[in-house]
Each structure stands twice: as C-alpha cells, then as structure tokens.
Design a protein that fits this description.
Layout lengths: L2 E6 L6 H15 L7 E6 L5 H9 L4 E5 L16 H6 L2 E6 L2 H5 L5 H14 L2 E6 L3 H5 L3 H12 L12 E5 L13 H18 L8 E5 L4 H8 L6 E4 L6 H8 L2
Parallel strand pairs: 1-2, 1-8, 2-3, 3-4, 4-5, 5-6, 6-7, 7-8
Helix pairs in contact: 1-2, 1-10, 5-7, 7-8, 9-10
The structure holds phosphoenolpyruvate (PEP).
Length: 251
C-alpha cells in the first residue's frame, strides 16, 4: 500500500485561498510524487467543489471531507451526507478527529456509526484515535486506544479492507501544540493499534494503514514516516501552506 500523506485544513481558508493552495500543491508535486506515496487534502466543505477537481487532475492526489452525518438523506439541518460528498468528488472522510471528540462532544458510538455508514456509502474512512495528556499520565494509553478502536470499528467486519480503511493515531496533546510524539511513543502506540487491528479485522488488519498525526512538520516528517507501522501522516497546521506540505509529502 502507498503511504498516505493527508492534510487536514480544519476551519481555515476561503474558497479562493483553498483553490490557490491546492493548485500550488499539485504544481509542486507534479512529476515528483514517488510511486509509493498518495496525497489527500481534507478542506472545509465550502471549498470541496473547488479543491477536489484540482487534486484529482494529478495522479495520486485526492480530496476528502473532515466530517459528515451518518445518514443517506433527510431532516438533519446543517449536516452533510456521504452521498453529497461523493457527488463533490470526495474520496475519503475523517471520523473521530480529536477536535470533534473533545470540542464538539462526539462520542465513540457516533464515531463508530460514521465509520460504518461512510464505508457502506463508498467513502474511504480514516478513523482517528488518540489519548489526552491526562490519560497518558494515568497510564491509560492502551485502554483508550482499545476502546476507540473497538467502538470505532464495531460494525465494519466484512466491509473494511486495507483499501478503504485507515486509522490515524493522533495523541491529543500533540495536535496543534508543536509537541510531536517521540519515535518510541509512536512505535509503541502504532504497534498496539496494529495488534488491535489484527484482532478486530483478522483478514485485513495487518495491512490497514496506520497514520501518525500531531505536530508533523517538514523537519520531523522524514523520521516519522520511516518508523515501523507508520503508513502515512495526518497533518494540520503544516499542511496549510503548499510549500511546507509538499516538503512533508516528499520527506
Ligand atoms: C490534525 O489536525 O489532525 C493535526 C495533527 O494537527 P497538527 O498537525 O497541527 O498538530
């Protein structure tokens, strides 16, 4: 499987800014993207229709959504359905990003419903998991990861494959803080996630990609991406500028 180099633009950029950044990014990557790397950009919903066509013109690049509501259609004011994302050219979607869990109050059960529904609708899903600093200090990293993986993947046995599911390990204390997890912390967490994936998805778990996220920058990406069980990265702040994200993609 290709390494998945994913950008999360969070709630930044106007449509014009997003389109300009996407165009600059594909320009920087044109003819340089290694055959073993895949690029994904997850912008706000507002600019998906502008950004997705720019990315899809470059082989190995695509657009994804940061969130959606797990229903086909209906009276869900303010929400977006997977079908509507596919209609805009979205290939992927995130579920369970720490900002949705901890700022917007999403629980494991809703995250699990999103993963199941998204896969069923034809989106490739990235399930985000990770512990808070309090949980790490209390020695609960594995307990938290186990719970988030068990609940997040509860309904996907038989549907999830190495091609349509990825897991992003994103320690909450490393997101947007500049405090990247160290190699030993990443290795230990990813090994545990791999073990759980194999237990939960016996035929596919060994090859489902595991991404690391949390203060990935051009100067640390090269080390992180070469660690065991690191099959990609999920990048927030450093993905907002095409130059810095392209350096991470090519690290
Ligand atoms: C993220 O938003 O998923 C993230 C990892 O952010 P940052 O790279 O800014 O820590």
């Amino acid at each position: 499987m290709k390494k998945l180099m994913a950008a999360n633009w969070k709630m930044y950029k106007t449509v014009a800014e997003g389109a300009a950044t996407a165009a600059e990014l594909v320009g920087l990557l044109d003819g340089r993207l290694p055959a073993d790397r895949e690029v994904l950009v997850c912008p706000s919903f507002t600019m998906l229709s502008a950004v997705a066509p720019i990315l899809s013109k470059t082989p190995g690049c695509s657009a994804g959504a940061q969130n959606f509501y797990p229903a086909g259609q209906g009276a869900f004011t303010g929400e977006i359905a997977p079908e509507q994302l596919l209609d805009l050219g979205c290939a992927y979607a995130l579920a369970g990003h720490s900002e949705r869990r901890h700022v917007l109050g999403e629980g494991d059960e809703l995250v699990g419903r999103k993963v199941t529904f998204g896969l069923g609708a034809g989106l490739r899903m990235i399930l985000c998991v990770g512990e808070t600093i309090e949980e790490r200090r209390a020695g609960q990293v594995e307990t938290v990861l186990a719970r988030q993986l068990e609940k997040g993947l509860e309904g996907v046995l038989g549907t999830a494959t190495a091609g349509n599911l990825a897991v992003a390990y994103e320690p909450v204390w490393a997101i947007g803080t500049g405090e990247v997890a160290g190699p030993a912390e990443i290795l230990a967490a990813h090994a545990f996630v791999r073990e759980k994936l194999v237990a939960l998805l016996p035929t596919e778990g060994a090859s489902v990609r595991i991404l690391y996220g949390g203060s990935v920058k051009p100067d640390n990406a090269g080390i992180i991406i070469r660690l065991d069980n690191v099959d990609g990265v999920l990048v927030g702040g450093a993905s907002l500028k095409a130059d810095s994200f392209s350096q991470i993609v090519l690290a």
